[in-house]
Structure formats: C-alpha cells, structure tokens
C-alpha cells in the first residue's frame, strides 16, 4: 500500500493526496514536517515533502509521484489517453508548479510565517509573477476545468496552488495578481467534489496544528 508522507498544510502534499483520492487508491498518511533527519533524507534527499513509500521504495517530488501513480494505477485516469492532450495537461501542471508557485513561494515567509523578506525579493517577484500569470492565462482553459472539459492532474495542482498565490499576493502587494482569472466559479466547482472537501478540511486542521507548534 502507498504511504503518503508529509504534512497536510503543504500544497504539494495536498496535490498528491487529491490525486490519490480521485484515483481511489488505498493509502495511509504519515506525518513528517519536512525534517532533515537521515531517515527522511534517505527517502527525499532534499528533505522536502511530500514523498511516498511504495512496496519498491520511496519516491520524492510531487509531479513525479503523480506520474508514477498514473502509470501504476490506471483506474480513474487523470491524464487523457491521447499523447498531445496529455502533454498539454503536463504543460499546465509545469506552469503552475514552476512558473507560478515557485515564484510566489518567495513571498510566503512574509505573507504567512511572520518573517520579513528583503524588499528586493518582494520587488523582483512581482513583475515575474505578472508575466508568468499572463502566460499561464494563455494556456489555462477553465472550461470548466483548467485543461478543458474534464478533471485532470492539472486540476490537482491548480486547486491547491492558486488560492495560496491569491492569498500571498493580496497580503504582500495589496492586490490579487490572479484577479483576471475566473477563480471564483472554478473554486466553487472544484469545491463540490468530496475529494477536494476532504483535502481542504485536513489542510485546515493541519495548518492549525502547525500554528500551535510555532507558538510552542
Ligand atoms: N518540488 C517539490 C516541492 C515540495 C516542497 O517545496 N515542499 C515543501 C512543503 S510545501 C517543503 O518540503 N519545504 C521544506 C523544505 O523545502 O525544506 C515537490 O513538488 O514535491
């Protein structure tokens, strides 16, 4: 059986958990706050979460994990069978992870964790985000799902990252840099799914736990 390791407040953890739930794969969860102990590094060499344990060994990197799940468990596919359509879903996932979330992540310390970022970091991230969000908007369909008329792996990515990016940019720039995207109807539609509801509830609970740990 698959074990999903990490903490449920993490958007990357939620992305994998949502795919597991959507594909109806049996799994258990193991809490790990991205610690850098030897046992964790043996499974996830950068000490990042999520990672999974499989019968063959551990696997890190959320997108790699999603691809592995797709290849290993063909039920409830999250990628279209046609190669170009599947590549377009992967392209959207890449833009979300690399061009949107990773850039917005530079803001998270200040936006969510009471840290202060260097003004230059905040300043430089903004034009990059504006440009990358415009690029993502050219690809994203929201018709009604992010890649078109069916729920795909790209929705597992979009539904966890986009709200965090909205929150971070509102807090840091006083403006939602995703405002031009139709996120309200999209999040409402995705919010109807039991899988999304479960991930969101677990995420909230774990975020509260994380906050109480931080307070000591
Ligand atoms: N590229 C990684 C990113 C995972 C990631 O950044 N996870 C965060 C939690 S949301 C983490 O482990 N942070 C701790 C660290 O970077 O040491 C993936 O897709 O799995």
- The percentage of residues in β strands lies in 5-15%
Net shape: globular
Mean pLDDT: 97
Taken in chain order, the helices and strands follow as EHEHEEHHHHHH
Number of helices: 8
CATH class of the largest domain: Mainly Alpha
Low-confidence stretches: none
Q: Which structural class is indicated by helix and strand composition?
A: alpha+beta
What is the total domain count?
A: 2
Number of strands: 4
CATH topology name of the largest domain: Glutathione S-transferase Yfyf (Class Pi), Chain A, domain 2
Major sheet description: 4 strands, mixed
Helical fraction equals 55-70%
In this entry the ligands are:
glutathione
What's the architecture of the largest domain, going by CATH?
Up-down Bundle
- The N- to C-terminal Cα distance equals 34 Å
Strand order of the largest sheet: 2-1-3-4
**Rg:** 17 Å
Question: What does this protein structure show overall?
Answer:
This protein has 216 residues and is of the alpha+beta class. It has 2 domains: 2-72, Glutaredoxin (3-Layer(aba) Sandwich); 83-215, Glutathione S-transferase Yfyf (Class Pi), Chain A, domain 2 (Up-down Bundle), CATH 1.20.1050.10. It is 61% helix and 7% strand. The chain has 8 helices and 4 strands; from the N terminus they run βαβαββαααααα. It has a 4-stranded mixed beta sheet, with helices on one face. Helix 1 links the parallel strand 1 and strand 2. The radius of gyration is 17 Å and the shape is globular. It starts with a strand and ends with a helix.
């Amino acid at each position: 059986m698959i074990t999903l390791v990490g903490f449920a407040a993490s958007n990357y953890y939620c992305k994998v958990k949502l795919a597991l739930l959507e594909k109806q794969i049996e799994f258990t969860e193991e809490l790990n706050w991205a610690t850098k102990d030897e046992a964790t590094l043996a499974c996830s060499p950068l000490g990042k979460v999520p990672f999974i344990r499989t019968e063959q060994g551990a696997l890190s990197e959320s997108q790699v994990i999603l691809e592995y799940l797709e290849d290993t468990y063909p039920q409830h596919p999250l990628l279209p069978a046609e190669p170009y359509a599947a590549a377009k879903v992967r392209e959207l996932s890449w833009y979300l992870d690399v061009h949107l979330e990773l850039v917005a992540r530079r803001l998270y310390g200040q936006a969510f964790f009471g840290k202060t970022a260097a003004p230059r970091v905040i300043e430089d991230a903004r034009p990059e985000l504006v440009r990358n969000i415009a690029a993502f908007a050219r690809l994203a369909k929201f018709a009604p799902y992010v890649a078109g008329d069916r729920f795909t792996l790209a929705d597992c990515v979009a539904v966890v990252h986009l709200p965090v990016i909205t929150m971070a940019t509102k807090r840091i720039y006083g403006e939602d840099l995703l405002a031009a995207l139709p996120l309200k109807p999209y999040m409402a539609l995705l919010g109807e799914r039991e899988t999304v509801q479960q991930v969101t509830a677990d995420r909230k609970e774990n975020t509260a736990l994380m906050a109480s740990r931080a307070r000591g």
